Amino acid sequence: MDKEETIKMFDMTDYYIGLGLALCSSGFIGASFIIKKKALVQISLSSGRRAANGGYGYLSNWLWWFGLSMMAFGEVFNFAAYAFAPASVVTPLGALSVIVAAILSSKYLNEQLNLLAKIGCFMCIIGSTVMVIHSPKEEQVDTLEDLLQKLTEPGFIIYTSIMLIIIFSIFFYFGPRYGSSNVVVYVIMCSTSGSLTVMWCKGLGLAIRETISGQSEFTNWLTYIFIVLLITFVCIQMNYLNKALDTFNTSVVTPVYYVMFTTLVITASAILFKEWEHLQLNDIIGIICGFLITVTAIFMLNTFRDVDMSRSHFAWRTRQPITRKSTIEESAQTSALIKNNTQYGTRNV
């Protein structure tokens, strides 16, 4: 009994370590966007050539390098989080970086954060909290041999095959023909490759974790397969994400990408690690509701953040006197009173 309680406490400790790393990752990544943007604004104000026009003046700016370092720390924390917590928890928490960036941009970049955007930030926190509370606890994978056995199961092989078919179809056919006119094409490419990237990331994280604990996994061929696959799929994901952001508005790309990427990561993780097998119905409903709340919040935050809207636009309604439309009976009584009153004359009404 004591042994079972010890194992349970160890598992929950890993879970909360991963949760903390994911939150730190969101904070660092969100702040890095603002710091790098601040550096680019300084360069443009100093009559330097902007990055959008092919300039590289930011490479000599210490503030830009500081922002890049913050992003590197955030990605390291995000990578480590996948080694401790389920991917279905770590991935949705990436939405919090959008909140951090939105709040800091309104303070340090003088960008607008209206009432609807603030409500979106609050809803995003609520949705992420609900998902964490109801999140599944993934099936324990202690060694790379266990992970290899799961990778060769029919369910994950079928999922991987479908993702590869989609990737090759977009790369050779749909991307060149429809990528520049339909945002879904590039975003699907990012999401499919990104969902597999997370799986390879979890495998490499497990190898590093086992190596730190004393059992070197860098003599295992599977570790190097994970490294090659991780680099390959990260390059594909980043390439098509940059294409999407360069072609379409950020307010469109961000919510669509978040929905597709998070959905596919949760699906892949559920197939590979069987995270949803022992979930109760209330937890499943809670995860779905939390996900929908977060998606709605991301949509509101990105779509309405530039709309000129604040509490002052609604305050006038509370200060205006209440006017009531007169009924037909009241209109008839008023007409009769005017007709019978001599000071209004003897005109017919």
Written description of the protein model:
The radius of gyration is 28 Å and the shape is globular. It has a domain of 140 residues. The protein has 13 helices and no strands. The protein is an all-alpha fold. Belongs to the NIPA family.
Question: Which labels suit this protein?
Answer:
349 residues; mainly alpha; globular
Gyration radius over CA? 28 Å
Strand content: under 5%
Largest sheet: none
How many beta-strand segments? 0
Secondary-structure element order, N to C: HHHHHHHHHHHHH
**Tally of helical runs:** 13
**SS-based class:** mainly alpha
Shape: globular
Helix content: over 70%
How far apart the termini lie comes to 94 Å
Global mean pLDDT? 78
List the helices and strands and how they pair.
Elements (H helix, E strand, L loop, with lengths): L1 H44 L16 H23 L2 H4 L5 H13 L6 H19 L10 H8 L2 H25 L4 H30 L8 H27 L2 H24 L7 H23 L8 H8 L8 H13 L9
